[in-house]
Specification:
elongated; mainly alpha
Length: 205
Amino acid sequence: MQQPLHRRRPTPGNPRVQRTRRRILAVARELLPEVGPAGLTYALLAERADVTRQTLYRHWPTRAALLFDLILEGPDVDTYPEPDSDVRTVATGWLRSLRDGISDPATRAAVLAVTAQADHDPDSAQALARIRRDRQAALNTLLEPSGVQIGDDEYTLLYGPVLARLFLDRDQVTDAYIDAVVSQWLTTLESAGALPRGGRSAAED
């Protein structure tokens, strides 16, 4: 994936640098739910991680860059799917992974912070756009065996209901809800000609 313009990584071949970076991210992940995005200052993070603020700026020149990494390098979730020719299986697994990833308090706080700041902070707006492109590309990679590739509108139609349920309704996203979202999404894709008839699943509903 192309690196965001506002993000500058140290040399990846230096194990000591990478250990420091991982430790800082771990500390930031612990602090973020406790103090909130506004309270996660570089002064506090440097103190808790036992590094200098200059070290933080070398890894993340902006706070948006730090939040970007907290989102995309969140804890691994067991539900992330493998590439598959069954579109329903991929979409269902991908949405469950999205739900489970956002259930991590630090990831959730980072997503909300970047989204809230995007209107007035160019770095946050750029990070948000990069996150979207990264996740959409990852989903299309999973869909490659099916021959289906989705554009911006189809992508939004898939993840939109899940984020609305989580952030606007403040309600749980159950497996049954995800199944209903995927069924409606497949019907919409089929009607628009983006999904070959009979291509929604190896075993039809």
